[in-house]
Each structure stands twice: as structure tokens, then as C-alpha cells.
Amino acid sequence: MPFGNTHNNFKLNFKVEEEYPDLTKHNNHMAKVLTKDMYAKLRDKQTPSGFTLDDVIQTGVDNPGHPFIMTVGCVAGDEESYEIFKDLLDPIISDRHSGYKPTDKHKTDLNFENLKGGDDLDPNYVLSSRVRTGRSIKGYTLPPHNSRGERRAVEKLSVEALNTLDGEFKGKYYPLNKMTDAEQEQLIADHFLFDKPVSPLLLGAGMARDWPDARGIWHNDAKSFLVWVNEEDHLRVISMEKGGNMKEVFRRFCVGLKRIEETFKKHNHGFMWNEHLGYVLTCPSNLGTGLRGGVHVKLPKLSTHPKFEEILTRLRLQKRGTGGVDTASVGGVFDISNADRLGSSEVAQVQMVVDGVKLMVEMEKKLEKGEAIDGMIPAQK
Amino acid sequence: MPFGNTHNVLKLKYASSEEYPDLSQHNNHMAKILTPAIYERLRSKQTPSGFTLDDVIQTGIDNPGHPFIMTVGCVAGDEETYEVFKELLDPIIEDRHGGYKPTDKHKTDLNADNLKGGDDLDPNYVISSRVRTGRSIRGFCLPPHCSRGERRGVEKMSVEALDSLSGDLKGKYYALKNMTDAEQQQLIDDHFLFDKPVSPLLLASGMARDWPDGRGIWHNDTKTFLVWVNEEDHLRVISMQKGGNMKEVFNRFCTGLTKIETLFKDKGTSFMWNEHLGYVLTCPSNLGTGLRAGVHVKIPNMSKHAKFEEVLKRLRLQKRGTGGVDTAAVGGTFDISNADRLGFSEVELVQMVVDGVKLLVEMEKKLEKGQSIDDLMPAQK
User: Fold this and answer.
1) Is-contact B228 B197, C-beta < 8 A?
2) Closest among B230, B140, B282, B147 to A4, alpha carbons compared
3) Residues A66-80: pLDDT tens digits?
4) Count of other CB atoms within 10 angstroms of residue B269
5) Does the annotation list B130 as a binding residue?
6) Of the candidates A2, A206, A211, which has its C-beta nearest B77's C-beta?
7) Nearest CB to B4: which of A18, A50, A208?
8) Chain B residue closest to A141 (CA)?
């Protein structure tokens, strides 16, 4: 792949105007922020592992815009990307994360007992509940940039850590390249299996290289706690179950994550974290908590109400189709989750989901009875 | 994008066995040739512009095999790739090009007068005739590796050269990113427009980066001579017309190419060429002449004959669907072209197509009349 650092030096033979990308048709965070002057200032830099400015922005150059979502348009190749290219990434982070300033501090709170309620979302409406986050392992470069040796080392370390889990977390690892047909069928039926990325957003950043080498899925025997290894991040940790008991989902999430982190620390490879950005992940949109807590919920009436979008905005929630980030909703069932990642804690974000979904279900019930919901419209959180 | 040279150095911290790709599911030329020992010897090397071994082979790792064609599985990032990585590429070249040895010399012959016949292929069977080749401009990196500045440099120089063509070669350049809807529609109707690559073979080697920046199509007013700029190679030069007058197509091809080369020489550069590999192109399968001369020909009876494949093989011809390399034939109409690229001259290859297609049409006519073709079977060329 190009943009080796010798090649980066080579490129410096060309003037800034000659190398600066054409972003005239683009609509993503990177295109909004990257000026020619900024490009000139940053183009000769590289992180210790050799990630360059062009590496950071390539996905945004190759993907001008997305119909449903304002994409970020850049990725980190390692922990240091966020420091070396802060002139570009700080404004993007601020734009994406509601004005989060370079001097702000992020709060981590994985104490599930701090969550109020969340165990009684109406299962007639809330079909399933899920919390996911990502983690990066310190000392390794990230999926856009890592070599096969690094990726395999991340896998090895992760599987060792996961294999020490016991009790409700006891489980098994299924590497993608050794899966039997039967195992694959089961994982698909459970909605656990992740496949080689097809999204051009991910492909443009080099995250699918060497697929399926060192990628895999670990889950507990009860199929309620799941870890993806080496997909878009080193680790994606997911707690899920049918119905509306978000409290239990979040408890399992926090307890499992803490256990995993302890094991990694014992091997002197903690998670990438700092007090400004929280957990450091591949995509700037996932900084902070990296947490998306959400439900699949039936809102056929509320979703067609003229104030639906306004309500979501005020509740700091986001809607997606039930197929994931790139999909549309089907049959009035929506994926509703927290919009924020950075600047509020895990507990605070899951609280917003719990309270917000509870309110929306109440609104749906009112609309079913033909009643107005004007008196229930919430204030901006 | 990864594999910067700092990153290449970082990778050397891992043992060769930790970095060596898993090729157990693979079926391409690279996977047949690459061994752990070769990988170990070459992994610390790079070309002057910074192209590394992993850059060469990434597309072959990410694309284990193709249903219709034995793919090459590697690309060059610059002219020097073929020298620095000769230990890997020479055996691949030998395997792909009929036993071509590292000491062999390639002959270039673009003198159209040397072609015998070719002006009388039966247009009731031969629907169209076409000759294409590629050219790389010395001093610039190739599409898997080039920066935006380099790609634009290639475009600028190419357009200047093409704009000075006159007579029946006089034409116009249509940059992909400035095309009007009307121009785009016309180019589609003419079957001239090339689009962003979708083939994973090309995407995995980084050839679609920054699309459509620096890409375009030039064609003459009579629409018989066409040049693609910055698609899979710096230049793809195509001469084509309806019917079976391959001689005229080849005449125009040679005249146009020679003129373009002179124009580049006037600018102080030239095409990448050496006496061993002939014209140097991105894919090792296109070395030598880079020439594919072919016809779309109706051979519904012949193509169902038990000896069809054997006949093609003896004639050193290859069949494809009429949609190009990744397609299947429709309605008995095939794309028939030379199988060879390296070790034969342009004239020799087009002669094989002319003679071979003439024979195939004779065979088709015999089969139509219910006659046998046994006495027409050719010897191995």
C-alpha cells in the first residue's frame, strides 16, 4: 500500500497545491476542517510507527459523503495519531462531539450501580437491548495500519485474556479462518457473526487487509456477552439480550469489561486511554466511552410524528435501521441509541437511553389511543 | 494507508513467521511462488520510492482466487519494483508468461506494415475489432503507489501530449471529475466510459484512491482511438472499430502510439521499457507488449464443440465474455484475443489473432453446414 514514509518524503517534492485533495464535492467532518494551509503544515509529519496525514484522511477523500450520516472522514493508525495530527483532529472532534474542547476532560464511569432504573422497559415494545464499546490495546497500531504480526499478537493476547473468564462469562473463541460450516451457521443464526467489511468507509481505510487472518468472535456460553477481535477496532465488546432489561445488560457489560481489562493489565498491555479523549479508538467518532447503548423498539406511530426528530435531538438519541449503521428501518422498528460518545460517562449515556426510550414508549402508547403528546415533549438534555 | 517504511521497520521486530501471510486457501501466482524463505529475504527491502514486499503482495493476500482466471496476485508500485523484488517476480513472470526466463530478451515491433492480411475477417461473424495496450511514464510511481501530485502530473503531461495530435487522431480530453451529464451519457453510449474500479483485485492494491481525481478519457473525433488516463495504468491506449478490419485497427494503433511516444520524448521523458521486460506496467501479466488484440465474434457452434478449448490453446488465444475480463459469454458471442503478452512482438500477437480468428470462423461455417472440422485442427503455435 502506498504512502510509505519514503514515499511521504517523495511527495514533498510536489507542491502543496499539487498534493492537496479535491474536496469540492465532499461532505464529511474532515472535508469541513482540512484547509490547504493545514495540509501544508501537517503533511511532512508522521507518528513513530509511520502513519502520515494522507493515511489519516484517505478514507474521507475516497468517500465524499453518506446519505444517512455525516461521516468523520478520517481514522487513527495508532495512539499517537491523535497527538501528532491534533491540528486536524481537535476541530473534527469538537465538531463531532458537540463542541468538546482540546482542554476538556472526559469522565469514565463503569460502575453499573450508578444507573437508575432500566430494568422495566416494556418488552411489548422493546424487543432487545444492547450495549457495545471498543477497546484498543496499548502498544499496537490500529486496524487501518497494523501488520499481520501485530494483528495476530492482538488476537493471541485477547484470546488468552478471554479464556480466563469464568462463571457467567465462561466462553469460547471462534477464529474466522478456522470456523466450521456448522459453527458459522450457528453464529449467523445468533446474529453474532461479523463478515468482511463491505462498507467503502472501512475499506478505504485499509481495515479489511489480510481478511480473515487473526479475526474472530468470542462469546460466553449463555450468548449474552460477545467480543469481536480485530474488526474495526482491536476489540469490540457487546452485551445483549432480548427484551427491555437494560440494567442487566449494562451490569454484565461493566463487570465483563473490568475483568478483561484486569487480565490485559497483568500482561502490561492496558487499554489506550487518556484523561482528555477517554478510550482511544480507530474512528474519532468513538472516542470517550466508545459506547453505543441501544434498543430495538417498535415505534410505528411516534416515528411518523412530525416531532420525532426533534424529540430524538432533545433526548440526545439517534435512530438507525435494525440492520445497523448503514440501514433504514423496517416495519416501524427502530434502533434507538445514545448519540454522544465523548464528554459524558458510560453511566450517563446509558441513563439517557433508559430514560429516553421509556418516554418514547409512553408517547407511542398515547398516540395509539389517539391522544396528543404535546405535554410530554422533553426539554433539551 | 499502512506499510510506510517506518512501519516496515517496525514490522521487522516481529519474526518473519509472525508476519508471513496465510496462503493456505489461495490460488494465484503469488501464492504459488512465495515461500517463507523468500518472504524473509525480501521483507526488509524497499524501492527508492518506498514500495515494500507487503505492498507488492497485498492484493494477492486479499484475493485468494478468481473463478474464471488464474490471477497474478501482485502489482508493481514503480519501475524499480521489478528489480528489487525480482526474486519473487521473476518466477511469477516465468509461470505466467509461458516459461519466460530472467535472461530472455523481449522484442518490440510496432511496424503495422509487418502484419499480413487482417483486413478481411468476415463481418457477418466478426462484430468488432480492438487492440489495446498500456504505457507507464518514466519518473512517476504507478497507480497502486502514486500520490495525488504524481497522478495529476501524469494527467497534465498526457493531456498536453494528446492535445497536440492532429489529422484523424485529433480529439478531446474529458476529465472524469469535470464531466457534464451529457458528456457522460455520450461516453457511456459509445462504450468508452470507465468507472471507478469495483473489482476487489484492483481495490486491494490501492488503485482507486482519490477517485476520480486525475482520471479521464481522451478520444479522437471519429471515436476510433481512445486513451484512458490513470485507470489501472498511467495510460491505456485503445484502437477500435466495428467489423473485421483488424489491419486498419492495428495501423491506427501503431501510428497513434508512436506519435504519442515521440511527444513524450520531446518533453524529456519516455515510456518505461527495458530489453528484458519490454513495456513495464502495473500488473506483471501485462509486461512485454501489454497488448490485447481481440474481436467480438459469433461462434455459437464452435464454442460448443468438444475441441473448442483445445483449439484456442493451440492458437495461443483466450476467450472472455463480451463484458470484459470478469464476465461470461452471451448468446454464443465471444471476445477472442491473444493469450500472450511477453516474449512475442506486437505484430506477432496480432498476427496470431488475425490467423486464429480467420480459422475459427471457417470452422464455424463448416459446423453450420454440419461438416466436420477435424482436418482443420491447427498445430500448437
Assistant:
1) no
2) B147
3) 766 789 999 999 999
4) 14
5) yes
6) A2
7) A50
8) B7
- Alpha-carbon gap: A69 to the closest alpha carbon of chain B (Å): 21
The gap from C-alpha B12 to its chain's centroid, in whole angstroms, comes to: 34
- List the grid coordinates of B374: 477435424
* pTM summary value: 0.90
Which chain B residues are closer than 8 Å to A73 by Cβ?
none
Residues in A touching B10 (Cβ below 8 Å): 49-50, 141, 147
Contact B1 A19 (CB under 8 A): no
Cell numbers for A380, please give them.
433539551
- For residue A60 the three cell numbers come to 474521507
Q: Taking the CB of residue A359, how many other CB atoms lie within 10 A of it?
A: 18
Contacts of residues B94-98 at CB distance under 8 Å and 24 or more positions apart, as own/partner, are B95/B29, B95/B32, B95/B33, B96/B29, B96/B72, B96/B284, B96/B285, B97/B287, B97/B288, B97/B340, B97/B341, B97/B342, B97/B343, B98/B340, B98/B343
Question: Is pLDDT of A328 > 80?
Answer: no
Q: What is the spatial distance between Cα A1 and Cα B4, in angstroms, rounded to a whole number?
A: 8
Task: Please list, residue by residue across B114-145, b when 16 or more beta carbons sit within 10 angstroms of its beta carbon and e when fewer do.
Answer: ebeebeebbeebbebbbbbbbbbbeebbbbbb
- Over residues B11-24, the pLDDT tens digits come to 899 999 999 999 99
The beta-carbon neighbor of A213 closest among B7, B22, B213 is: B22
Question: Distance (Å, rounded) from C-alpha B20 to C-alpha B36?
Answer: 7
Query: At A219, phi and psi to the nearest 5?
Result: -145, 155
Residue B227 in contact with residue B158, Cβ under 8 Å? Answer: yes
Question: Low-confidence residues of chain B, pLDDT below 50?
Answer: 1-4
> Using the beta-carbon criterion (under 8 Å), do B4 and A55 form an inter-chain contact?
yes
Residue type, A61: V
ipTM of this model?
0.87
A274 bridge partner residues? A278
Subunit contact B145:A203, Cβ cutoff 8 A: no
- Which residue of B10, B52, B148 is in closest CB contact with A19? B148
Distance from CA of B32 to the nearest CA of A (A): 17
The pLDDT value recorded for residue B67 is: 66
- Over the stretch A252-278, which tens digit does the pLDDT of each residue have? 999 999 999 998 888 888 999 999 999
pLDDT of A324 > 70? The answer is no
Query: A210 CA to chain B: closest CA distance, Å?
Result: 5
